[in-house]
């Protein structure tokens, strides 16, 4: 049986946001858990229970475009100003002045932006797999195109025809079968390979996730699933209902976010923790090298043997680290 608190709703920043809350409401500062792509608040189910059981107030929203939360039509409604503004509005709804923001994958980009844009609402930040970096000197989408080519999924997501969305929307179960697996055992020479098992000739594509999923057959995938059948059904049912476009629209704002961040001071001036996953092929631990230059009060923690879905692959370890760090730094 999967344990989740009851779904609640908040009017925030022009949308209705679904969220889950557990733990004592007088605990401060509470912990806000922000999911990545393609995920939902349910991705934090293990941490919600563990933190609440430890006496910590915990809040996990379905973010804009996902799950029980509204999915506005305009692409620019998914930029970082909106995504961080949604979290401020959620704090306002719950009458919370400051919180610790924890983000995995895309949620990590959002939480590292919180102290840059809303410093007075942030007690601390935890990045799970996603590091904080100084602003790139050139448009990141052009960087991805240069480094990985036009087939790289983030570059493909910029295509206004939305072909990638259609591939995911027509193969929801296939997508979660493909994504939600542990990496194969790492080679001695470096991090785990990108998830290309079960793809035949398509495995030559570099991060071309739409084509990988279109060609994918779970029968031939040697990687171990990280979700039970019951857990997978939650993701599949949710994304069958919502589609993938809301989450992909976050990627369609990459250039806009980069352009509009030029005037920001990119130094994070709150207590921060970086949780890295040893075998994440897309966001390896090396991506966090040098973070101390822009995050002066930083601790790092390595989760060994984990791929990209760290809080679901190694839930007890991630929860224990969050609890230990929260208690040590905030009482």
Automatic annotation (TrEMBL):
It comes from the Bacteria. Residues 29-315 form the AB hydrolase-1 domain. GO terms for molecular function: hydrolase activity. InterPro entries: AB_hydrolase_1, AB_hydrolase_fold, Epox_hydrolase-like. Pfam families: Abhydrolase_1 (PF00561). Signal peptide: none annotated. Keywords: Hydrolase. This is Pimeloyl-ACP methyl ester carboxylesterase. It comes from Bradyrhizobium erythrophlei.
């Amino acid at each position: 049986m999967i344990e989740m608190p009851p779904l609640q709703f908040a009017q925030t920043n022009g949308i209705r946001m679904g969220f889950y809350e557990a733990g004592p409401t007088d605990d401060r500062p509470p912990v806000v858990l922000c999911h990545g792509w393609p995920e939902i608040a349910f991705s934090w189910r293990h941490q919600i229970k563990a933190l609440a059981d430890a006496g910590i107030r915990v809040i996990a929203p379905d973010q804009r475009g996902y799950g029980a939360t509204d999915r506005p039509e305009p692409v620019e409604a998914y930029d970082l100003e909106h995504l961080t503004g949604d979290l401020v509005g959620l704090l306002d709804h719950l009458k919370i002045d400051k919180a610790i923001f924890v983000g995995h994958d895309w949620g990590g980009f959002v939480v590292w932006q919180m102290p840059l844009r809303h410093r007075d609402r942030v007690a601390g930040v935890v990045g799970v797999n996603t590091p904080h970096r100084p602003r790139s000197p050139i448009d990141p989408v052009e960087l991805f195109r240069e480094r990985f080519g036009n087939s790289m999924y983030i570059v493909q997501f910029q295509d206004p025809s939305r072909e990638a969305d259609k591939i995911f929307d027509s193969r929801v179960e296939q997508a979660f079968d493909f994504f939600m697996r542990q990496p194969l055992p790492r080679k001695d020479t470096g991090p785990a390979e990108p998830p290309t098992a079960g793809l035949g000739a398509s495995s030559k594509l570099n991060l071309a996730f739409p084509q990988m999923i279109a060609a994918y057959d779970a029968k031939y995938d040697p990687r171990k699933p990280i979700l039970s059948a019951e857990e997978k059904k939650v993701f599949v049912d949710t994304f069958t209902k919502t589609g993938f476009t809301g989450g992909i629209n976050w990627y369609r704002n990459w250039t806009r976010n980069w352009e509009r961040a030029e005037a920001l001071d990119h130094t994070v001036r709150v207590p921060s923790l970086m949780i890295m996953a040893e075998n994440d092929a897309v966001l390896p631990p090396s991506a966090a090298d040098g973070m101390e230059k822009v995050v002066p009060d930083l601790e790092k923690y390595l989760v060994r043997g984990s791929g990209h879905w760290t809080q679901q692959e190694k839930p007890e370890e991630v929860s224990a680290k969050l609890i230990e760090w929260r208690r040590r730094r905030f009482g």
